[in-house]
Amino acid sequence: MRVQQPAATTHIEPSRLPAAEPGAWLTPGRFALILTVLVFVSFPQVVLGLETFVIRDYGFFAFPLAHYQQECFWHGELPLWNPYNNCGVPFLAQWNTMPLYPPALIYLLFPLTWSLSFFCLLHLFWAGLGMYALAYRWTGHRLGASVAGVIFAFNGFSLNLLMWPSHIATLSWMPWVVWSAELAWSQGGRRLLVAAVIGALQMLAGGPETILLTWLLAAALWGVQAIRWLSGRPETGGATTRGPEPSVALGGFQAAALWRFPLLVALVAALTAVQIVPFLDLAAHSERQQGYADARWSMPAWGWVNFLAPMVFGKTWNEDLFFQHGQFWTSSYYLGIGALLLGLLAIWTVRQWRVWLLTLATFIGLVLACGDQTLPSRWLRHLIPQLSLITYPVKFVAVAVFSVPLLAAYPLAQRSGLAGNDSRAWHRRLLFVASLLLVLIAGILFWAWRWPFPLDDFPLTLRNLSRVGFLVLVTILLLASGRSSRPMLGQVLAGLLLLLLWLDVWTHEPPQNPTVPTWIYQQDLARKQLAMNPQPALGGSRAMVQPLDEKKFLQLTLKDPKQNFLIKRFAYFSDCNLLDGVPKVNGFFSLYPRASGELYSVLYGSTNPIPPALADFLSVSQQTAPVRGEQADPHNLWRPRTNFMELATAGQKPVFADENHALALVANGAFDPRQIVLLPPESKGGLSINSPTRARVVRQQFTPRQIDLQVEAFEPSLVVLSQTYYHPWHAYVDGHPQPLLRANYAFQALQVGPGNHQVRLVYQDNAFRAGALISGLAALAWAAGWFASRKRNAIHLP
User: Is residue 548 within 8 Å of residue 626, measured between CB atoms?
Assistant: First the structure.
């Protein structure tokens, strides 16, 4: 029997809905309080500042970058360039470093060991509240909105993102962007300007993949509404049975909406040009050129089973983290068995276009998450080469993480308007879907028992049986709350449902975010313990992790997260060197200037030691000793080098070589950097030097964005610097501009005439300046629009 949707005739304001309806007490303020409690109960030691996150990229990438950003902030500098990693690498242009994201002030102003983890948890809270607002706008149902909010904040994917402040911040704005964009194109005025600010905040948070998916979903919603309006089908009816959807009461789709959404997109892009333009400039000059693709860590073809049985076909590694076989980007994307139950029920029973759109989006997202295992993914990347900037296809699971909570809200809103046979039919369908999920879980466990993967641990897999218990309890609560004739009992059951949804996800596998004492991030901790001699320092020399040691540290995972971090911090693994202000040859970032990225791919793509000649040129004064097992003695990790060159030298003979030849010579150390410098053939015409010359660098001073040299030359000479070549660097000799050459494949050189010269290299990012100008003009236009627009109804949570 099909559940019939009664005709929508008159609208009843949500505030006047019957108080006896389960979950009617879940106002925005009360739901926010529930979210606060759930976040605190989940991470009390983090909220109180007693411990902090450390796992994976949080400790080795996010915290060091936040530390460098904080150091620049308190020195009154904008972090455009990072001179400590990869012999110099763009910082602001990376985008995911969040240097222009206003809420970053939380961790810039307060002690970082507490504030950065609090920043992540605050955005987890903000994600749940935003999903509540969007789900309530679409369904008009408080319990449904609350369920959606809890599912979006507490699922395996969102909890995994806590190790990336940029990613969790971007995800948290996803429902807010869709919520505000719909208001913007339906009503315009100040609502459009508010939506522009919300969109800009997400854009500045810096998770490109999530931002792209957010705006694609918003565009799809706008496009469907535009088609319905143009075809003469206004928005009537929906998941609720009390009247039109809340969106209609707030303002439906009109002719003006056809231009308001494109205007919103343009305004968001203009407001954030200060970040987007440098990023696009770096992307255009990065190693990720057309044809670049990294489809590692796709969702396995059988990965759908982990939505029902999260700890199957995988392994618990050291630090007690569970991962699927062959997929290590996210430790989980389990949404909760209750979320799946309600989502499938919505697909089956709710006849509403938003449900169909969310279902289609979820399907497409899961197909693309499988990467090259599916033809559509390969075809799409061939059709749109720019998608090669997106790595690790499992990220497309974010579409399901966004859509399923919204789908889960619809059956609860639908049930509120049913009575008699329709209500009984709804409950029968609920029982059928629950039974189907039970059968699927049983089949998955049988599959894992009879045909396990080589590294499977079946006793561990049996932990999935607890999901059966949660499925049964959620089903009982849904049945009981719908049939209860006692108002107070119905409200209690609604609260228990939220608790069960949280508890299901919180217990679905070992903790995804283990915590450690805050002292492990103490500034200069490694520098003091290691007491290197000579000590690498900015403008002096660098430390170097040998490729084989880099690989061993990457594979080394101690069971204790604290010890795992400390031994790697003492080895300056990844970006940990930033915590001690120690320059290092390599590092870990999303994008690199093309030549630099290609050189380090060659060097660290093998296990061969970096040749002595190249190490000399890179000013390496300390290199790692061979790693043996799980040694934890920091004094045995490093050994000194004494034959290193200064960062700036002069007098080398130019030798001209094409890119392939130059890369091979540099990577193999088949050149003498004291005697020759490799230059591209196109620079030959501007040089008057063809042999070694008498010249020296008398004095050198390095800061993050400026290098000052005093050069003494007896004849026209070349000055060579082992700093990454990137076009925003500009050279001046005695105050006059001088062309900066790409030397030794990925580094810098310039020509000086005879005599004593003051040489200055300055980082002048014209892309940043252009973006800042555009954003400044857009901000003025925004302010003018705000004061010129007539006041509308206040914008508030329902």
Answer: yes
